[in-house]
Amino acid sequence: MLKIGTIELKSRLLLGTALYPSPDVLSRAVKAAGCGVVTVSLRRQSAGEGKGESFFALVRDLGVRVLPNTAGCRTVKEAITTAHMAREIFDTSWIKLELIGDDYTLQPDTALLVEAARLLVEDGFEVLPYTTEDLVVGRRLLDVGCKVLMPWGSPIGSGQGLLNPFLLRTLRTRLPDVTLIVDAGIGKPSEAAAALEMGFDGVLLNSAVALAGDPVKMATAFARAVEAGRLGHEAGLMDKRDTARPTTPTLGTPFWQESGETS
Length: 263
Prior knowledge:
The protein is α/β, with parallel strands linked by helices.
């Protein structure tokens, strides 16, 4: 069971709400995924526009928790303003904090991220920061009051999967009691399973489902992959070896002799 703050969620899969071909497909994909949380990006102009209000109503009607995010923000002031708007619209203290530092990779600006997280935590938000897999940055975010970290697997929407498994494993090993959710870059169900097998608490994805040929079927695939990955982690994965290990040991195995031979 995934725990965010004091909230316990049955599913370890979080789903984004952008890029779907229609509202109906979005609704069916969320249901198929069985996820308890969806993310939604907020734009300042949306609050007063009919189109924005219609979409927000659709998200509320999904019957799952909403995690607003500050997608597209590039300054601390912009992120804080967006977070306040999200709290008013969705009546939640949760905010996925994104502060982009590079337009090509959409890599987080970690210096601004820590500063914005500090100010938002002081203002009563439960901040879930979208960050890199850097351990030191993760500790800085924890120091300012974040309870959950959301390191990227690879650049947003790239579908490149887990580009740096060594640093991801290091993050998991060095922060054993922190809720860690891999966010961004996952393109295949097998990659989501791999993240859960590493011991990560959940995954957040969007493009891999929304842009699939059949988003509903893909949402189902990811739900099953996440469950399988977590079960594998809890069961205990076998260690890798440099040499073969026979599955049928020879000790105690009878050896038959050819007819006419004597022992």
